[in-house]
Amino acid sequence: MRIAAAIATLLIGCAMFAQPANAEGDLERGKRLSYTCLGCHGIDGYRNAYPSYRVPKLGGQPAAYIVAAVQGYRDGLREHPTMQAQAHSLSDQDLEDIAAYMATLGTATVEAGGSEGIDLEIAQTCVACHGRNGISVAPTWPTLAGQHEDYLIHSLNQYRNGERTHAVMVQMAAALTDEDVKILARYYASLKGLETTEPEEE
Ligand code: HEC
Ligand code: HEC
Question: Where are the domains of the chain?
């Protein structure tokens, strides 16, 4: 029941604060500003050093989620020294432009999400937000399909150990065992969705 209530609250919140996915950003400017970002996010297999896990894929991630995530680092809700430093140097407009550009580099779209039919039992509760086949159903929520397995494990464990504090996800992750985390991460990583945003040739 508590989870259902949390979902309802989030759905209402999303309807109120959701921003149009690509409407606000200037793609040309975003492309220029993304150059630094793609030095990590655009290189296949690039890893964070301590702890070691692959840098998350951003291609096809909804623009509004990219904006929210970077603001999370900037506002200290998410800890990661490099991303916090990156975030501090960006204005809101810079960020809108970067996110709009990055979102165009993948083929996964919110429209492809849906809440029916997923074939993994423990993923049934995830479907409401992360969608059938792991494609997010709202622009402010992350797509999981195709994300690196080790990054998914890392992020679920961050909700479990309090390093990430998003209220709904903390509740979701608290219900999972180590084994569940591994199974879910392997499952979502195996689905088609996010892509590494490689820098385009000039
Ligand atoms: C030095 C490498 C590096 C650079 C440069 C970098 N990032 Fe990151 N980024 C990371 C790592 C590592 C993470 C995962 C951090 C964590 O565990 O929270 C991350 C996380 C993110 C996330 C969260 C992804 C998610 O699925 O929640 C977003 C969004 C993001 N970066 C956007 C950017 C943008 C925009 C820029 C350029 C302004 C940028 N990054 C520059 C390494 C980098
Ligand atoms: C009520 C909606 C909702 C449900 C249900 C839900 N999530 Fe989430 N999930 C979110 C939101 C919103 C975020 C972004 C939170 C943040 O900013 O940290 C998120 C973030 C995540 C992330 C981090 C993604 C990234 O790119 O950093 C993972 C992994 C994840 N969820 C997995 C799951 C799994 C597995 C389940 C089912 C057990 C689940 N979620 C259920 C809304 C939901």
Answer: 2-8+21-190
CA of 55 to the centre of ligand 1 (A): 7
For Cα atoms 112, 103, 9, give the angle at the middle one, nearest 5 degrees. 60
Residues 111 and 142: their CA atoms lie apart, in Å, by: 13
Q: State the pTM of this model.
A: 0.90
pLDDT per residue over 73-93, tens digit each? 999 889 999 999 999 999 999
Return d(Cα 136, Cα 130) in angstroms, integer.
4
Q: Can you tell me which atom of ligand 1 is nearest the CA of 142?
A: 26
CA of 201 to the centre of ligand 2 (A): 33
Q: Which of 23-37, 79-93, 110-124, 188-202 has the lowest mean pLDDT?
A: 110-124
Q: Which CATH number fits domain 2-8+21-190: 3.40.50.1370, 1.10.760.10, 3.40.710.10, 2.40.50.140?
A: 1.10.760.10
> Separation of 36 CA from ligand 2 center, angstroms?
27
pLDDT in tens, 124-157: 899 989 988 899 999 999 999 999 999 999 999 9
